[in-house]
Design brief:
With 328 residues, the protein is α+β, with helices and mostly antiparallel strands. Helix content is 34%, strand content 25%. The longest helix is centred in the last third of the chain and has 20 residues.
Length: 328
């Protein structure tokens, strides 16, 4: 048997880490790690700008992402979590000569399952809303550069191409067989997602907890927290980045308001069953004061679970979140 290359061994180790982080969850959302930790989504569902802009997102220390298009919010992240919860699978592409010509990752499901997976009322009036959200994701492109943010910033100031990378959308295409709840739906993903799945750069996100959360901030932060099982604290500068804010640059009143939002969000994470406890630590004094949130997961890792238990993992019910009929 041939020995594994270093790259193949690294993929297997990443996959094993993902499996160890199952934490007793059922129907997790298996998604690219950089997407789970990227600040590409604003922590709100309403009042999103439709103006096409470019937003720079640093996924430290691995990559820098330029998000080009309309502003994405909580409802767009909700849709992605739901789609990845329904599993993306590889489909082979056959070229004109009949030979394999690569592959594409696609989620094949029904409208009913998409609505159910995202905690939205299973009603035909919500189909157009779901389609519209998918289309808005498809119209948003990602330009991904490998390397550090400092190297990216230096190159851009000099007018040079920063690094190797690629440009593509999160979603490549959407096909549906009809307007009924049980009509088949096929969502194909872009190059970034394909590369992440091929390289096993994946994380397992507790989607049950995610869809129980009522706070937009909590939904913005839970993927980052849950995708890093060996971490037990996070700085407010990082939480600010994930919410599209520079915490250190905020005026005093806005910093205080942000800490209030943080309190509500982390209390929400406890109520949803994601965290057992949390506390805010202050370091330093005055304007130079920095903050850390220390937290403890509510569920043990897979290796710590009592496999003989009949609890079935997450025991809390998954409520539906009703959406306004035909809302955008």
């Amino acid at each position: 048997m041939a020995e594994l290359t270093a790259a193949e061994q690294a993929r297997l180790e990443r996959l094993e880490r993902t499996r160890r982080n199952m934490r007793g969850r059922r129907l997790p959302a298996v998604m690219p790690s950089k997407l789970a930790r990227a600040a590409a989504f604003s922590p709100r569902s309403n009042g999103l700008s439709e103006e096409r802009t470019t937003r720079i997102v640093a996924v430290r220390p691995y990559a820098v992402i330029e998000v080009r298009g309309r502003e994405l919010g909580t409802k767009h992240r909700d849709m992605l979590v739901a789609l990845f919860r329904l599993r993306a699978r590889r489909f082979e592409i056959v070229g004109p000569d009949g030979r394999p010509a690569g592959g594409v990752y696609r989620t094949e499901t029904t409208w009913r399952e998409i609505l159910r997976a995202s905690g939205v009322s299973v009603h035909v009036n919500n189909l157009l809303t779901a389609l519209r959200i998918c289309e808005e994701l498809r119209e948003t492109s990602l330009r991904v550069f490998t390397g550090s943010y400092d190297a990216y910033e230096t190159a851009m100031k000099a007018g040079r191409l920063p690094a190797a990378g690629w440009s593509d959308g999160i979603i490549g295409s959407i096909e549906w067989d009809g307007p009924s709840l049980d009509a088949r739906v096929r969502v194909a993903y872009g190059e970034w997602v394909r590369r992440a799945f091929e390289a096993k750069h994946l994380v397992s996100l507790n989607a049950d907890v995610y869809f129980r959360l009522r706070s937009d901030f909590a939904r913005a932060w839970w993927p980052h927290i849950d995708s890093q099982p060996n971490h037990s604290w996070v700085g407010l500068d990082t939480l600010g980045e994930l919410a599209g804010r520079d915490f250190d640059a905020l005026p005093s009143k806005q910093r205080a308001r942000f800490r209030e939002d943080l309190t509500h969000a982390f209390d929400d994470l406890i109520a949803a069953g994601g965290l057992e406890s949390w506390r805010l630590e202050a370091l330093g004094e005055g304007r130079k004061k920095t903050y850390r949130v220390h937290y403890k997961h509510a569920l043990p890792k897979q290796g710590s679970l009592d496999l003989g238990s009949t609890s079935g993992g997450d025991a809390l019910p998954l409520p539906e979140r009703a959406e306004p009929d035909g809302a955008g």
